[in-house]
Amino acid sequence: MANVHLRRVTRENLEECLSLQVLESQKGLVASTTESLAEAYVDPNLFPLAVYDAAACGYEQPEVPVVGFTMYEITAGVGFIMRLMADKKHQRKVDHTKAIFQIEH
Predict the structure, then answer these.
(1) Which class for 1: exposed (0-12), middle (13-18), buried (19 or more C-beta within 10 A)?
(2) Which strand (E) or helix (H) includes residue 15?
(3) I need a surface site. Which of 23, 44, 53, 72 has the fewest CB within 10 A?
(4) Cβ 53 vs Cβ 67: under 8 Å
């Protein structure tokens, strides 16, 4: 499984983030990226991040696609992972436990 690299959602990767989809059987288990980004827009305690393959690390504009999405919240100094999803094309290829580790640090 590939290592991951997290980046802020920006103008440059927004469309890719919005196009992420889960498998049909997973719909309803996690909010869409569109819904998550709308929530983050109005709540300054929410921090959305694009999940990339680690090959993106060190590049301003990575040549690798966004493979997933995560969002965390910080309330009263405590962090919570609100969302974690892998695009249906990249499931079983990316180790999302490494994404959780990066969020924590």
Answers:
(1) exposed
(2) helix 14-18
(3) 44
(4) yes
Residue with tokens 């910080």: 74
The H or E element spanning position 104 is: helix 96-104
Please tell me the pTM assigned to this model. 0.81
Ramachandran quadrant class, 60 (left: phi over 0; alpha: psi -120 to 50; beta: rest): alpha
- Which residue shows structure tokens 């060190």? 58
The sheet carrying 46-53 orders its strands as: 4-8, 46-53, 66-75, 78-86
Q: Is 76 exposed, middle or buried (0-12, 13-18, 19+ CB in 10 A)?
A: exposed
Q: What are phi and psi of 91, to 5 degrees?
A: -65, 145
Instruction: Domains for the chain: give ranges and CATH numbers.
Output: 4-104 (3.40.630.30)
Residues listed for the chain: 105
Residues 53, 94 contacting (CB under 8 angstroms): yes
- Read off the pLDDT of residues 13-60 as tens digits, 9 standing for 90 and up: 999 999 999 989 888 898 999 999 999 999 999 999 999 877 667 666
